[in-house]
Amino acid sequence: MQPKLGLYVHIPFCSVKCFYCDFASYAGRRDVAARYLSALKTEAAMLGPRTPDTLYIGGGTPSELDAGDIDKLFSLIHESYPKSRFAEVTFEANPESLSEEKLEVLKRWGVSRLSLGLQTTDAALLKSIGRRHSPEDFFSIFRRARALGGWAISVDLMYGLPGQTAASHRKSLEDVLALEPEHLSLYGLHVEDKTVFGRRSVETDEDLGREMYETSLDLIERAGLARYEISNFARPGFESLHNAIYWRDGEYVGLGCGAASHLDGVRGSNTPALIPYCAKIESGVRPTVEQESLSGKEKLGERILLGLRLVEGIDLEEPARREFAREWSELEDLCLVERAGSRVRLSREGVFLANEVFCRFVSPFT
Ligand SMILES: C[S@@+](CC[C@H](N)C(=O)[O-])C[C@H]1O[C@@H](n2cnc3c(N)ncnc32)[C@H](O)[C@@H]1O
Ligand code: SF4
């Protein structure tokens, strides 16, 4: 059965703020962990009874919580959604804060996917992007997680980092693939304004980035993982069920600061600010800061651009064919999309120029 409803729980605590990161994440605020967990429980009650099929605990850095708080977090989730039999439970963790004790807690609560944030195995580069852990911290916790067994392990890597060479990226990828993870996420650096890199006006080298991505595709495929989304690769059967809900325009509940929801046709997102999030919940007010309900051509465009992220692409049936006839024809002429039977998907070139494709499906339409 395809999961229908996802549950995302955001844990905003981090050991440091990495120089590229624009997520709702805060270093040195573990003092509010108990207050935050209590707010999560209240927010779940505010949203009313639901029965989500997948659970994704992301961040920030969920492993920044101590073992006792991780245990409380799972308790409150199961108390809030007593009827859920989660088909997949993902927990994001960083090498500097994951421990044997925390792994045992995760095991007990049935975590089926452990997502480890690494970025690179180049020690100097890790320091220069503001990460706190060493490559050895990662190797050590990966091996311990593997020895415990019973879950799929996913690793996050980044390319196009300032000062990163093609050889350094290749080595990171080879180091990770040698560990035989079931899943890999590979992200090109995006320089966001409100980050250290943004303030330093760091520039990315598009050609080098593309070379790194091209090399990665070959190496990853040879290691037995297939690309199933622009940035995601998996061994057969280990694709993320939860993230597939997002890409297939499905529904999800998001709890926590900065979390997004898509429920009953309405997309909403919570304030990313930690203390205002807690304060609003405590005073009985929903922490939503943005809400929109798309319809007609706008809704169709959103569904298309989400689906095009997937290698399987989308079914090009009416009204998607008719409403965007000119766009499809232009994109085919530019060789940015390709047909496979009744389906259409990004071409290899289109994957590199995905934003150029996506902007055609976002209002205002030209
Ligand atoms: C939710 S984030 C953070 C998870 C975890 N705390 C960590 O640091 O690994 C998930 C992933 O997004 C990627 N990411 C974050 N900011 C990015 C950026 N500005 N550009 C590209 N990838 C980014 C990183 O690979 C990161 O591991
Ligand atoms: S990349 Fe991860 S660890 Fe670094 S600040 Fe962002 S969420 Fe926190």
Number of strands: 17
Straight-line N-to-C gap:
39 Å
The level of helicity is 25-40%
**Arrangement of strands in the largest sheet:** 9-10-8-7-6-5-4-1-11
Question: Number of domains in the coordinates?
Answer: 2
**Count, helices:** 15
Low-confidence stretches: none
* CATH architecture annotation of the largest domain: Alpha-Beta Barrel
Features:
366 residues, alpha/beta, TIM Barrel, Arc Repressor Mutant, subunit A, 2 domains, 15 helices, 17 strands, binds S-adenosylmethionine, binds iron/sulfur cluster
In a few lines, what is going on in this structure?
The chain has 15 helices and 17 strands. It folds into 2 domains: about 5-245, Aldolase class I (TIM Barrel); about 295-360, Arc Repressor Mutant, subunit A. By secondary structure, the protein is α/β, with parallel strands linked by helices.
